């Protein structure tokens, strides 16, 4: 067993760590043994565990867990980037969220992580032309997690959505790599136009709680958007914006705001 675990740690360190933490969790709290075994220890790969967890959460009377699991397995089999992104999301959540103490937690308990992984499957379905099925995933994510992400929205790797309630991300929105956002963030449009109408968020951006970014505007790499701000115009890289409407109030204050998670403005 030790040799097998060592090989797994070399091949897939994130999954190996989750498996080790799952075994420890069962030892610490036997009442969770069934859930942990079914969700993690029963599966040979993180892809299978993700498919199981997503299908369990999204199943209802209209679409069974088994059907959803087959769809998720198909998506992960066709696009390895889905699970690679999930690994990056788990690592990002562990590193940035002070309430996350184990890699195990996002997979089992954090609805922000779970909703993003469900969206990744929905986006795969959208790209495959299976639009109605992708809308089903969007609907169920909204109902179950309180997060509404259009299946066409493009989301990068290393995403951390803290608390995650009332997140809205529109159809033509783009979210770069290593972005952090808090609850009640909206990446929305400004009217009824049907073309490219949603924000483009650069890499390493931090978006505070309740912030609204509206319209086909760019938010530059390594910038910060203060909590409660309404952003209606382009944000240059490495700046902090705040207010309604938002304006530049200073520099970002660090190289990677989304990693530092520093939401205070100290002036210049």
UniProtKB/TrEMBL annotation:
Entry's family note: Belongs to the transferase hexapeptide repeat family.
Family matches, as Pfam families: Hexapep, SATase_N
PANTHER family, sorted: SERINE ACETYLTRANSFERASE (PTHR42811)
GO BP: cysteine biosynthetic process from serine
Protein's name in the database: Serine acetyltransferase
Domain Serine acetyltransferase N-terminal: 14-118
Principal EC category: transferase
EC number in record: 2.3.1.30
